[in-house]
Amino acid sequence: MSAQERPAELTAERPVPRPAARPAARPGRRRDEAKDDAILAATLELLAERGYDGMTMDAVADRAGAGKATVYRRWPSKVRLAADALVCNRSARLSIDDVPDTGSLRGDLAAMRRLATRVNNANDDALTGVWSIVQDDPEVAAIFREQFVKSKVGLMRAVLERAQARGEVPAGRDLEMIAMVGPALLSYHKLANGGSLEEGFVERMIDEVIVPLATCAPVPEPAGSR
Amino acid sequence: MSAQERPAELTAERPVPRPAARPAARPGRRRDEAKDDAILAATLELLAERGYDGMTMDAVADRAGAGKATVYRRWPSKVRLAADALVCNRSARLSIDDVPDTGSLRGDLAAMRRLATRVNNANDDALTGVWSIVQDDPEVAAIFREQFVKSKVGLMRAVLERAQARGEVPAGRDLEMIAMVGPALLSYHKLANGGSLEEGFVERMIDEVIVPLATCAPVPEPAGSR
Amino acid sequence: MSAQERPAELTAERPVPRPAARPAARPGRRRDEAKDDAILAATLELLAERGYDGMTMDAVADRAGAGKATVYRRWPSKVRLAADALVCNRSARLSIDDVPDTGSLRGDLAAMRRLATRVNNANDDALTGVWSIVQDDPEVAAIFREQFVKSKVGLMRAVLERAQARGEVPAGRDLEMIAMVGPALLSYHKLANGGSLEEGFVERMIDEVIVPLATCAPVPEPAGSR
Amino acid sequence: MSAQERPAELTAERPVPRPAARPAARPGRRRDEAKDDAILAATLELLAERGYDGMTMDAVADRAGAGKATVYRRWPSKVRLAADALVCNRSARLSIDDVPDTGSLRGDLAAMRRLATRVNNANDDALTGVWSIVQDDPEVAAIFREQFVKSKVGLMRAVLERAQARGEVPAGRDLEMIAMVGPALLSYHKLANGGSLEEGFVERMIDEVIVPLATCAPVPEPAGSR
DNA sequence: CTGTAAACGAGACGGTACGTCCTGTCTTTGA
DNA sequence: TCAAAGACAGGACGTACCGTCTCGTTTACAG
């Protein structure tokens, strides 16, 4: 029932968010699509102001100028609404085409870092606030993983592949693994730091970890390996 | 109010977990110390079965065969109880002395991995479920960081330093950063995988990321480097 | 607003139920008069099946094959609809001319009872269910009193007057009061009985109360009266 | 479950309202019996001020200084609460012993009328407001019939029996039926009058209906009866 | 025959009450 | 004095219904 009932954001890949809608006309009043946005906006605001627990469904409805029924007609539960609000809000997603080819891996990473900062910093933090709650719902959890993990890793991997094509990265490296290192370190650092990002951390990470790891020659396996 | 009221786990450094308690006799019934364990066990079970939201205080008390008041006499809130349950349960902590010196970084890491598996696998997973909630409480958050981040990174760093002393790791590497890579990748992988650890992932991580990163020669900085 | 909007039943005396309507033509689609009946029928059914609370406006519209707007275009509220449904349905009203002159009060009453049974039994019962709700609306309440109280008492009074003309009932009796006794007992009995009418109750009432009361000689007032 | 859970008023005959209660002691906080009264009082007030629909459960809890859970722990639904409030409030119930023996039926009735006015006038009116709603619940309906119908009829019957013993009322009269006439007329009159009682109505009823009916000689059955 | 106005079925809307559940506190009885 | 049991205030959740409004379609008069 739900895949069609709910707004499409959480259930489809973004590129085609609403699949051309109902081809045949249905009777009855149309849903006010503007309400979706109003509700999501209200949700996001309240999430930021008061946290997940303070984000009351009544408050959401109220601030969105909607009735609770309207909210529940579109999202089946508070968790799903919060999840959708966070996912949808990741306004732009970076793709490899957004990252300029600077001619070096190090340059590309620096460029990427600048783009990413502009795009989705605040959201990542808000996300942490609902992460554990969102995990209860397996479907939502999958979407979240897609949105917040795989997309980052994918972008990083594309950058690495470009560097490999350029000859910077030797063949035979486990790019999948290496692509995870950046995002992983970033989020682990935030974990260890109470959510804040230390000045200069990203640069240090790029210079001390990612670039060396990607560009150094493969170490020969020890003879009697394991 | 709390430092004395609550079991010591969350408020003191582990070495002296329960401060020998009151030696002199007080009037009245003694606290049943066994109840602490029953409550923590119940908490952990429910956390695993139903997640943080499903872990009701009533259910905890019920399963522990205790009254709610008993629970609240020992822990000041649900969050703290959940936090304590997770922290306390990390029965043993590894130190560098527990990791045998196999003569190679790769061997040490493999040994460490075997030890760690025995010790604290299940718990790390349960942790993910309460992470964000636990963050609300700054004191708890600090303990958690200590327990789940710094201790891992510290151990890893010690292993790296041993390898450096052995001559495997070149001087001048940012060991702090490199030590984070292992734990970060592990937890990020679990995040991306819904909590489960893919077969062979750790080995791949050791061979493709940590060992190369630690042992390869530093790459020369590009000429016009920032 | 309403007198013209709504079907005429509740606002006009029955004899001219729908005042020949607008002779001049207006543009636009005509109201489907058949829908009135469908809606009233649905209302009555649901009232009987589920009571006033269970009689949802959505359910009424649904069962009548109508939209809610259609219902609300014709009746301004749920109460009024329920009221109308009950009132309109009292298909025929008995008048003194319908009651054959059997030559005795007792015979006339028996005849009347047979007629009344045919006419409006089920409805009286449904009525009880909305009585108190209907009271909120003063206009509706007035109609209801007219329909369900005065009409019965009026008929009974006519029968009593015929008996008085016949010489059965002594002059000087308070016919107004006596005429109320029958209807009052009937409805009170239903109240006390959960809506059902005990077998033989009407006959007993006629023989033990109405006839004796109407025909006996007036009792002499006690000497030092009040 | 419910008979014991709820306060006893609606489920037991008043004389032994709470059946000696729990003989053995149970652990746990006792129910605050004062809350019962506070809640019932709040209910009654709100019922009077705003009617049944306006009597919100939240408002009741609020005014009673209680939580909604406390209300719902004691009454299973709004209807039951309203019902109980009305029934319990009939502070005193008249019995035949309260009606002085004036030596004549007419005098007894006048005395009874004075007593009844003092005791339960307002309540009868409030009752009308919930009657139809209360009817949905068969158990409550039965209690209401008991309280508001049978008790009145019973008292009236006792007065008639006393008059019969005195010789005022001939043997062989259908006292059950005659006892209903008074209450029936009264409530029917209120029905027809929008709830208000016309000045002098009761006296007229006593003199023109009840006394004549009870004291007149039985009319001979017509020969060829029906 | 075409335009326009109204009524139609469907169903979304704002609002609001209901009854359930959970947290953290308080009270009672027993050990 | 502490324990178990459980009642308490408060407040959020998700459901249901009322009366209104908006769609896109159908009907019927007007020109």
UniProtKB/TrEMBL annotation, chains A, B, C, D:
<dbReference type="Pfam" id="PF00440">
    <property type="entry name" value="TetR_N"/>
</dbReference>
<keyword id="KW-0804">Transcription</keyword>
<dbReference type="InterPro" id="IPR001647">
    <property type="entry name" value="HTH_TetR"/>
</dbReference>
<dbReference type="InterPro" id="IPR011075">
    <property type="entry name" value="TetR_C"/>
</dbReference>
<dbReference type="GO" id="GO:0000976">
    <property type="term" value="F:transcription cis-regulatory region binding"/>
</dbReference>
<dbReference type="InterPro" id="IPR009057">
    <property type="entry name" value="Homeodomain-like_sf"/>
</dbReference>
<dbReference type="GO" id="GO:0003700">
    <property type="term" value="F:DNA-binding transcription factor activity"/>
</dbReference>
<feature type="domain" description="HTH tetR-type">
    <location>
        <begin position="33"/>
        <end position="93"/>
    </location>
</feature>
<dbReference type="Pfam" id="PF16859">
    <property type="entry name" value="TetR_C_11"/>
</dbReference>
<feature type="region of interest" description="Disordered">
    <location>
        <begin position="1"/>
        <end position="34"/>
    </location>
</feature>
<keyword id="KW-0805">Transcription regulation</keyword>
<feature type="compositionally biased region" description="Basic and acidic residues">
    <location>
        <begin position="1"/>
        <end position="16"/>
    </location>
</feature>
<protein>
    <submittedName>
        <fullName>Putative TetR-family transcriptional regulator</fullName>
    </submittedName>
</protein>
<dbReference type="InterPro" id="IPR036271">
    <property type="entry name" value="Tet_transcr_reg_TetR-rel_C_sf"/>
</dbReference>
<dbReference type="InterPro" id="IPR050109">
    <property type="entry name" value="HTH-type_TetR-like_transc_reg"/>
</dbReference>
<dbReference type="InterPro" id="IPR023772">
    <property type="entry name" value="DNA-bd_HTH_TetR-type_CS"/>
</dbReference>
<keyword id="KW-0238">DNA-binding</keyword>
<feature type="DNA-binding region" description="H-T-H motif">
    <location>
        <begin position="56"/>
        <end position="75"/>
    </location>
</feature>
